[in-house]
Amino acid sequence: FAELHAAVAGLPVASSRVLPGLILRRDFAAYCPAGGDLRAVLVTEPLRPALSAPGVEFVVDSEGRYQASLRWIARRTEALMKHLQSNSVKLLLSSVKQEEVVIYYAKLYGVSVVECLSSEEVALICEITGVSAYAPFGDNVYREITEAAVATFCQPLLLGSKRCVHIGFTSVCAFQPHCLILCGPVDGVNKQHAAALQGAFTMLQQLYKRVDQ
């Protein structure tokens, strides 16, 4: 329920509504508008390549070599974003914050980016879409990307003064996610309404379990 409702204070209760899809309560790190169905990938690691493996010390003994290392990182990041573009990926969903070089090349190659997804949001997206996280730095960086979900829409949404991401996925299961927008004059009223609705849904779940049995 926590991932399927959003509260907006300062609006009348009558403004509450139900929207199809998911609402991610953060703004785009990069937004590149695109029409029609969008291929989306989910990542759980930084896309800026590391110069060394974890636990391995990397020593640079001159400014020239340091600058060469930065150029190598930039070229590798650009190649990855170009690879996403060539696989028709238009949306990158990340559980970690990506570095500026990733955002720069994402904008350059028309890939929208949403960062800092919670573990609960990641799990929900995986459940809806049936895809797993994409690991870009495996044995073959340039392999075909098969871990892609289909988003029917992805657009900015303004809830009160907060900018959010509104996204709809093609679901591979019977569950078709919808988000409840709860409006109220103050946060306390919204919390009361949310608690009451969550209790009602819990009661309905228990009722239907008894019917099934």
Automatic annotation (TrEMBL):
Q: Which GO terms describe its biological process?
A: chaperone-mediated protein complex assembly
Name it: BBS10 protein
